[in-house]
Amino acid sequence: MNKKHFFKVVANLLFIGGAFVLSSCCGKCCKNEACPNEGAAVTTASAVDSSAIVLDAISKRTSIRAYQETAVEEEKVEKILRAGMAAPSAMNKQPWSFTVVNDKAILKQIADSAPNAGMAANAPLAIVVCGDMDKAIEGDGREFWVQDASAATENILLAAHALGLGAVWTGAYPNVAKAKMFARILNIPDNQVVLCVIPMGYPAEAPAPKDKWNEGNVHYNVWK
Ligand SMILES: Cc1cc2nc3c(=O)[nH]c(=O)nc-3n(C[C@H](O)[C@H](O)[C@H](O)COP(=O)(O)O)c2cc1C
């Protein structure tokens, strides 16, 4: 192999190697099928960009309690619900349901019945997150539904923020009387427990996000 040929081979190998590293394909799959590992942790420039976007959304999200009258587009509502359902859940039971409320009269009824959800009266939309007891784990792990539905709720709050909306978690369960009252208003069946109501809409206020970093909350290994 002469010198020129050698450098050409090396250049080609570097090009192929670079393309492989930048591709999101694991390289183990059949090229004719969708890669099962697509999107797996491959550090590319775009992965670095998206981590900054995700972390920014998490740190800038804040509770929004005043809304413009503008309706929330259906496509955005679906994206938000998809984010909710993307949450982790114990044993992947997904023990939740979501009730979208965009009827002004019902939003007012919710607000009038619970002062802590009073902002619903001026929201174009609220999503009511329930635990679905028919899907919840039987026995010891039953109460995991609360964490599962809470994870879905946080995903909803983050998705709303990412889409330029403002939202707030207003609590129901473990206040059983309040959870039942919301269920009555919405004709939600007995196998569902209302965890929270999330009024949302385009923000009519811009409170500064709170910096909650507290080193004192962090411990390594054995507490000192
Ligand atoms: C379980 C839970 C229940 C909450 N209930 C209410 C509520 O009933 N009304 C309300 O205005 N905010 C409620 N919030 C929102 C909190 O007040 C808010 O998250 C907290 O003050 C921190 O502010 P931030 O969301 O802007 O970071 C609730 C939040 C959580 C997690």
Cofactors and ligands: flavin mononucleotide
The tally of strands reads 5
Question: Low-confidence parts, pLDDT < 50 over ≥5 residues?
Answer: 9-41
Give the SSE string. HHHEHEHEEHE
Count every helix, treating DSSP H or I runs of 4 or more residues as helices: 6
CATH class of the largest domain: Alpha Beta
Residue-averaged pLDDT, rounded? 87
Number of domains: 2
CATH superfamily of the largest domain: NADH Oxidase
CATH architecture of the largest domain: 3-Layer(aba) Sandwich
**How would a crystallographer describe the biggest sheet?**
5 strands, antiparallel
Terminal-residue CA separation: 65 Å
- Please state roughly what percent of the residues sit in beta strands, choosing from under 5%, 5-15%, 15-25%, 25-35%, 35-45% or over 45%: 5-15%
Shape: globular
